[in-house]
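Cross-check.
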Amino acid sequence: MDRKKINASKVSRRRITVWFLFLLIFSFVAVGQTSRIESVGFTVSDMDRAIDFYTRALPFKKISDAEIWGADVENLSGVFGARVRVARLQLGDETLELSQYLTPQGRPIPVTSRNNDRWFQHFAIVVSDMDKAYQALLRHKVRYSSNEPQTLPAYLTAAAGIKAFYFKDFDNHILELIEFPPGKGSPKWRELAKNKIFLGIDHTAIVVEDTKKSLEFYRDTLQMKISGESENYGTEQEHLNSLRGARVRITSLQTPQTGIGVELLQYLAPTDGKPFPKDTQANDLWHWQTSFKSAELNNLAAALERRKFDFISNGVVALKAGSFMFGQGLLVRDPDGHAVRIVK
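Predicted model, tokenized:
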């Protein structure tokens, strides 16, 4: 081969390499990235009662309370004729968003729900002293989900020493108290624990059928990072989840800006959890939404459409001033049906 052909071949290879690198960079940028979880929330049946529960039995503080309606609310929620009372409550640095659909009202959480059903979702409140926090809940006569606080055993290396307790609000939404032992959990909880019992929201947890499929949504599309993994089993886990023989694969995910995380709960046993109801609407009381912030909302919307995730909203919705705490948003379902709101 003569020198001209060799040089031409080298140039061609360089061009292919540069073009390949460009495609890699473009594909990453085109997916976009979420920066943090802005809030976690769910639908309630009675806002006054909900605010009373979360500010009396738990030390949340109300930061806003408003009624919203109109075409933008309908297009975002997917609920025709929606008139919604939305209250935002704060504990530490984290935000809980409660929504009551004044019209139309949705359905209650099924009384037969179990913790391995795939509509299960909760959020975990970090406490500095489980005994004191548990006694505070007892004084307010909260409803039990676990039979008592559980301390996870030493053989569960990643979770050893964590204390946890599940309980319910009056609508049967499940909540968790969690106390981290030294060396586990975010360092910020140890700093806050110096003078408080209830510290803030650590994560929201969702039941998934297949961790790999869920990672395609939360890690590969929303660009969250895996921050921890564990496989929990034994009598303590069984009594925490109120499920005989419970064995759970737990995958923790975090956004670039630390704050509320997401836990994927895949039940390796028992595997008889019910699927997410296909006819679920945002006014049903089992509807939760995890709300992510992103500066690249349109890129994310395009990536979600390409990967064929189900939209609840009518694409990216522009919101009129005063409707929400943001100007644009979309609502989409993950592979199991859990609702995720992405806002700009």
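The chain has eight helices and 17 strands. The two ends are 57 Å apart (CA to CA). Passed to J.P. for a second look.
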